[in-house]
Write a structure and sequence with these properties.
Elements lengths: L1 H26 L2 E3 L6 E3 L22 H29 L1
Antiparallel strand pairs: 1-2
């Protein structure tokens, strides 16, 4: 019985270590909201609690023109892929 208890305790200890490690990883990415004092992740542009505007640390949002260009390119590639599949299906039948 003591062997099972030891295995169980060992699993619990490992689980607790993983939890502590994850908390430490998250903690280094937390900043304090200057509007409400809530601890929030450093990449947010808006506080989830008060809605205040935040300046992200280590992250800058993509330029809207560049984002539109990437979306357009994605759509074009997707449409060309669908056309290619349709053409292949017709040719192989």
């Amino acid at each position: 019985m003591s062997k099972k208890t030891t295995v169980y305790e060992d699993e619990e200890r490992k689980k607790e270590e993983r939890i502590q490690k994850r908390k430490a990883q998250i903690e280094k990415h937390l900043v304090t909201c200057p509007h409400c004092g809530e601890r929030v992740l450093d990449h947010l542009t808006k506080c989830p609690k008060c809605g205040g505007v935040l300046t992200p640390r280590g992250y800058t949002p993509m330029d809207p023109k560049k984002e539109r260009l990437f979306k357009t390119i994605g759509w074009v590639i997707g449409i060309l892929g669908v056309i290619a599949v349709i053409v292949l299906a017709i040719v192989l039948n």
